[in-house]
UniProtKB/TrEMBL annotation:
Protein name listed in UniProt: DNA mismatch repair protein MutL
Residues in DNA mismatch repair protein S5 domain copies: 215-333
Family matches, as SUPFAM superfamilies: ATPase domain of HSP90 chaperone/DNA topoisomerase II/histidine kinase, DNA mismatch repair protein MutL, Ribosomal protein S5 domain 2-like
GO MF annotations, alphabetized: ATP binding; ATP hydrolysis activity; ATP-dependent DNA damage sensor activity; endonuclease activity; mismatched DNA binding
Protein family (similarity comment): Belongs to the DNA mismatch repair MutL/HexB family.
Amino acid sequence: MNGTTIQVLDERTVNQIAAGEVVERPASVVKELVENAIDAGARLVRVEVTSERNHVTAVRVVDDGAGMGRADAVLAFKEHATSKISRIDDLDRVLTLGFRGEALPSIASVSDVTLVTRRRGGGEIAGTRVAIRGGNAPEVAEVGAPEGTSVEVRDLFFNTPARRKFLKSLHTELAHIHGVIERTALARPEISFRLLHNGRERIATHATDDLKETVASLFGTAVAKDLVPVSLKTPLVQVAGYISTPALSRADPYQVFLSINARPISSLQIVRAIKEGYGTLLPKDRFPVAFLSIGINGDLVDVNVHPTKKLVRLSHEKEIYGAIAGAVRTALGGKDLSAAGAKPVFPVFSLPAQPPRIPAAGVAESRAPFTLTDRRLRQSELPLAGAERNLLPEIEVIGQLDAMYIVGSAEGRSLVVIDQHAAHERVLYEQAQEKAGPGSQELIVPVLVTFSPQESELAREALPALAEEGFVLEEFGPSTYAVNAIPVVLGKLEEPEVIRDLVSALVRESPADPVGKREAVLRRVACRGAIKAGDRLSPEQMRRLLDQLARTKNPYTCPHGRPTIVTFSPDELAAMFRRT
């Protein structure tokens, strides 16, 4: 057989392949161009996004950085051409955000790019304009231009339609762009950032040496007021920034913002270290809001892990994570955290016996722990289709364990343990599925919820799905929504954070949980409306909950697939006690 089957790919094809790693969506373009602007010493970065017919059609990033001469402007589109490093050893101490030399050629290979630049303080009268479409040969010309650089990207993925069809809705793509600007502004508060969509300003931060001012610009003064400063300096690591009091928490760690050496990064290990620092101040299923800037010697950080540069590797991981946890613990120590509230402590195990007689003055107090539970159970007494069925065995309630589990006896032989939260969650979930009874209830006084710019953009898209399940929201000023009605199953809306958690669950794409938006709302509504672990139940309330669970179609698992009931047969109990 003559010839070869292995071929050397041409530069244009190589760039389009590289674009698949570097340029995932319009937000990827914004990230790369903003990072270039920061590396050029910009003090003001302006991002302009244009959309038509529910699609992002153009992205333009303008900066007042160093700018470029004609030769550098052309060379910037050459693959692996970079001013950030010159040899492999430089990766051990790279301080710039970019260094691969892949961004501009990758973007230019799948879009229509126009770069206009003039060097700052270079004395040139004219600037340089470089235009490239789909990786073709550049068109270069002299133009009048201010000092600095602007890069406009149009028609993204025009020559790779398979990539374009995987883009999400306009609101989702805009939310990703908002997220890029939020993370970058928090990592570099000394730089001013502007984000405009179709000429309307969405984000505006001012250069400051106080990170808290940037936090207030992005998340509002209410969040900024509920923050505790964190400060740590050791020979190995420096930590500075803010963490929330336990009163301000989220259902997941999406508002833990981290940067290492002024580079926005993602790190589950650091999130765990922060959570560890809170100890028992936060429930296991809640996460703080945090804005932390971490400084580590460049020799201990490997930023050359992935083309997006969001992940890093660290040396001395155990010591660094331990120091971060310690910094959080120290910051919270001695602070007034009373805003978080404290649940009353109840006996570990309670029997369904007649309670002891108490003075009349204490009667109201003795019923207080059961009042909220009673209200929640009333919300789930709506009839279900097939309610005459009973898929559970006859269970006699014995008592409650650790204010989390109902302990009972099944048909006088087996021991059963019921997770009270999971059981009630199943009841509410099936009722929400059937929409039994009225779907929503109007609030006498609307509840105001303030979102970050990214959340606000995502909320706009989530409104129809929320409305379908009984939430009625309307915009009430920049990034603020008024909640006018909620699902009946939620009862009284005690926490505005319920809305935030629901929206945050809808708006972030999670490959591990690929459910539709309606299903996501149903699960969250059921979870937030259900009896909680730690809620004390009276004997009558335990019985009512089991009766409600028995009438569901699937009483043995919660909507997330976790078991609601664990049964120990006589043989299993005998084996545990070595009676066999």
